[in-house]
Prior knowledge:
By secondary structure, the protein is α+β, with helices and mostly antiparallel strands. Helix content is 39%, strand content 22%. Helix 5 runs antiparallel to helix 6 and helix 8 packs across helix 10.
Amino acid sequence: RGKSRFQIIGDTSVISPIFNFSLSSKELFHSNFLAWLINENKDEFLEILVKYTNLEFDVKSLEIGEVHREKNHFDITLEVRSRVTNEWVFDIIIENKVKSLPDEKQLKEYNEKALKQNANNHLILLTLSEPSFVLGKWKLLTYKQLLEELKNKELPFIKDSSYKKAIVGDYLKLVDFLCELDDYIIKASEDESTHYNWYDDLFNALNQYNVRMGDFYMKKNAELLALKIYNKIVNIPNIDPDKIEQTNSIVHAKDAEVRLYYKVNEKVTLSIELSGMYYRRMIHITESKTNELETIKKINSLTNWLDLKEVNLEKDMKYNSTKEDFLKFGDKTRYKQIKITTTNSYLKIIENFINDVNIIMSFEKLITNTII
C-alpha cells in the first residue's frame, strides 16, 4: 500500500539545508529569511504586500527603504519612503506566525502600539494557520498565499545566481510542505469524533532525528484542542470569563500540554490539565503566608476535587492512580492524575473539561467562605 507524503518524510526534497536551518527556531528562521528576501527584492515585495493592505497609491511613487527585524518587538518592519523626496511615509509591520496560532490579545496590543507610533502604519499578519477571530486593523496574508505570490513573481536577484535560485526554490518547497502539514492537522482536528492519538505514525515520522518536526505537530494539535475547549468553556451559563486562563505548551520536546486555570479567588486557583496521556486536576495556592499543604488538604477534603474516580474518560487501568499522596509541582501545587487511552475522542475530552469547570463553579463560594 502506498505511503502518504508525510510517511516518506525522509525524502531529500524536504530534508534539505534550508529545512534543517529552519529547525533551530521555526518562527525566527522564517522571519530572518523573509527579511533577507524582502531586502534583496524590495520593489517586487512592495507589489506583493500592497495587495494585502488598504493602501491606495501608485506603487511606483514609493519604495521600501530599511528592512528591520524586531524593531519595537515587531517581527519585520519595512520603512516605506517616497521615491521623489526619500522621506519616510509609513511602515508596513509584519507579525509572523508559523508554529503558533494567531493570538487575538497579542495582535490587539501590537495594533495599539503600532498605530500609536503612526496612524498611517499598515499591519499584516503573515500566518500558516488562519485566525479564528476578526482581525480588525490587521490584514491577512497566509503562507499559502505568499507561496503562490512568490511562485508567480520573477525575482531579479536570482536571475544570475544559481545559488540564490536554489536557496529560494528550497525555501518554497519547505513552505509548501508546512502548508500541507498544517492543512492536514487542522482538517483532522475539525472532527470531534477523532480519537486523541497524537503519538501516531505521523508523529513518529515527524519526530525522526533527521526531521525533528514532532514538536510542531504536537504544538499545533494542542493549540487547536485548547482553542476548542476555551471557546466552549467561556460560553458556560453564568461563567465569568475573567476567571479563566487557557495555556498550552510542549514539554520534553514531544509531549503536548493543554491547561485551563480557574481563579477561585486571589489565593486559590484550580486547574484541569491534559499532559500527554495524563488527565489531571490540580490545586494551586498563591498565598505565601499560609501552610500550603494543609490548605490544599482542607480544600480537597471539602470538595473532593482531586478525586478522579468519576472522570468520564477511558482509563489505562495498568496505571496506578489510587495513591494516597498528592503529586506536586513546587510547594504551592498539588495534583492527581489518571492515564487515559487513545480510544477517547476530542469530544469526550472537551466534555470532561466543561464538566470539571461546572464542578468548580458549584463549590467555589464554599472554598472562599469556608477555607480561604
